[in-house]
Amino acid sequence: SDPAAYQYAHFTKKTLEQDGITFDLIETSDVDVENDVITANKDPTVHGILVFYPIFGSRPSFFGGSHDEYIRDCISVEKDVEGMCSTYRQNLYRNVRCVTTYNPIKDKEVLEALSAAGLNRTLYEKDESKKCLLPCTPLACVKILEALHVYDMNLPEGNRMLGKTVTVINRSEVLGRPLGAMLANDGASVYSVDVDNVYVQSRGKMFDTKKSVEEVCRESHVIVTGVPDPNFNLDLSWIREGTVVINVATDSNVDKESILKIPNVKYVPLVGKVTIAMLGRNLLRLYENFHS
After folding, report:
1. C-alpha span between 26 and 198 (Å, rounded)
2. Could you check whether the bond before residue 54 is cis, i.e. omega within 30 degrees of 0?
């Protein structure tokens, strides 16, 4: 029933179908959504599942937390195209970059040796070749930073944001917190700003700081804004020359005309189309990991 989610769902469907992806858009109820997710989990013709939130909002869940979070965790790791189920979230915050699976050993010599020894049980070997999925909107921000050469591709993977300071003005579980973790995992110093406090995110850790929002913005090479309030505007006097500013909010948090007057600022006003591209990328990764 959320108008923005409804619009985004139809735009996503149109965009992915243009790329030849079959997209079944199911309009369901809050009573039936869990069963619909479980049914899709079991359907071998379905390679990815995406639920458009909010559904329950802040309504509590019998299972703890919000019921939207519970529905998110009902999606199978093999089909979670959004990369937000508990497995992918925990791996992200622990900087674990692969999904560990165990596959039956198929090596002919090993099987013959087992048979000769009278061992007829199935043995498994550890597989860490499958890369984790990452949340689409935070991943879109990372890809934008790569395209703008903020990431130093000459450095080893996992350290390509070393020496960079980033402020993320949003700490939601769908944008700010995972984006901060992704950037910190790549070596950045990240300030996470919420309504009434500022935290520092580093690899696997988050701790508070006494610095103000103004102070952390003035330090930053990159500022990402995602405040869901049409009345919030980033104070442009806090932005130094050459800063990259990305707006993720539906109602822009930035005065476009004014920010472009700051020397060498790179301003990205929208990320929606890149987010949908990351959705397609995640779907292909799911297919390669689990369905090919």
Report:
1. 39
2. yes
